[in-house]
Amino acid sequence: MTLDLKHDPRVKDPVLLSILHRDWRECVVCGEHRGGLSLHHVFNKPRDDLRENLVMLCGDGVRGCHGAIEAGNRETREMLGRYIYEHRPDIIEYLSRKLVRPNEPPSRERALAWMERRLCFPY
User: Fold this and answer.
1) Overall domain count for the chain
2) Is residue 3 part of a domain?
């Protein structure tokens, strides 16, 4: 038996994206809307357009908090990790399902370890 390493197909939902742009009116990191707002996919492989994989950040991929996250700014990533940990258990649940290993159940611990590595937030 061979292991299928393909990711699930990406979930694309332009209707949800437009709803979130309407409803989420501030950056989850700084509380501002400097340079506009953009949705950031927490987990990028695949970049599922699901509420539990999205956060609103100011700027875009090169400016504001969104740019700082993409550039690997440790302080900004840590603030995003704190926000997710304190306010978005749905994201942690999503990560626990996406990071599952073959023949193992979803793992909150694996999700938190991924967040610690990627978002520099000690849990």
Assistant:
1) 1
2) no
